[in-house]
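Researcher: I'm preparing a figure for a lab meeting and need a structural model of a single chain. I don't have an experimental structure, so a prediction will have to do for now. The sequence is pasted below. Please return the structure as tokens so I can convert it later.
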Amino acid sequence: MAAFVRRADLDFLLFDWLDAEELTARARFADHGRETFAAALDTAEAIAARHFQPHNRKADLEEPRLEN
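Model: Understood. Here is the structure written out token by token.
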């Protein structure tokens, strides 16, 4: 199944356009860097692929509805 958002596009938005690495200049984020941000994105991608992606087709075929 194709990725919803290409990782290269997400990396561009975070690191080039939003300059997320600039956060590391602040004391609160000084222990982090691009590698930390990338690891967080990798983890989020793995969780989504493992736990959410399997339900996408079912949700498309049987639209969720609120009952009662």
